């Protein structure tokens, strides 16, 4: 049995704004060890526990669509793999494991394309830890359909 915890952060800008339930926002993730700018794939973390993380990516206006098959835009699988690895690395960082995360092994099964009209992609990853190695099974989906299952292994180098 795992104990789940959720840190609530508020991004209220006025008395009428609704509180946010994001654990980490994009700007907070950019302040960690993760890639910054265009290579940071995760936009927010919505849930985290010692063995599970839920993240979201904003797809609709992602920088890759004008560049990757511009006349037939499709989100590249390599960046979906990168996002799954980043999600596992965020969980390790959240647990206090510091160092350089390295994606050392990955298995991926793709089921459908991610298109600009999909708006948001969800990553739900179950993660097992053995010392400084974190093995995840990430289910990626957009509203209404499954996109991929990616199994990244991330090692944190001290």
Map the helices and strands.
Layout: E1 24-25, H1 26-30, E2 44-49, E3 52-58, H2 77-94, E4 100-110, E5 120-130, E6 133-142, E7 145-157
Antiparallel strand pairs: 1-2, 2-3, 3-5, 4-7, 5-6, 6-7
Question: Can you offer a commentary on this structure?
Answer:
It contains 2 helices and 7 strands; from the N terminus they run βαββαββββ. With 158 residues, it is mainly beta. It has a single domain, classed as Thiol Ester Dehydrase, Chain A (Roll), CATH 3.10.129.10. A 7-stranded antiparallel β-sheet has the order 1-2-3-5-6-7-4. β6 (133-142) and β7 (145-157) form a beta hairpin. The longest helix has 18 residues, at 77-94. The two termini are 29 Å apart. 28% of the residues are buried. Residues 1-19 have low confidence and may be disordered.
Concise synopsis of the structure shown:
The chain is built from two helices and seven strands.
Instruction: Supply the CATH class.
Output: Alpha Beta
Q: Determine the number of helices (DSSP H or I, runs of at least 4 residues).
A: 2
Strand count: 7
Which shape, going by the Cα principal axes? globular
Distance between the termini: 29 Å
User: Describe the biggest sheet?
Assistant: 7 strands, antiparallel
The fraction of residues in strands falls at: 35-45%
Per CATH, the superfamily is Hotdog Thioesterase
**What's the order of the H and E elements?**
EHEEHEEEE
Taken together, the total number of domains comes to: 1
Structural class: mainly beta
Strand order of the largest sheet: 1-2-3-5-6-7-4
As a whole number of angstroms, the C-alpha radius of gyration is 16 Å
What is the average per-residue confidence, as pLDDT, rounded to a whole number? Answer: 87
Unreliable spans: 1-19
Question: How is the CATH topology named?
Answer: Thiol Ester Dehydrase, Chain A
Question: If classified by CATH, what would the architecture be?
Answer: Roll
Helix content: 10-25%
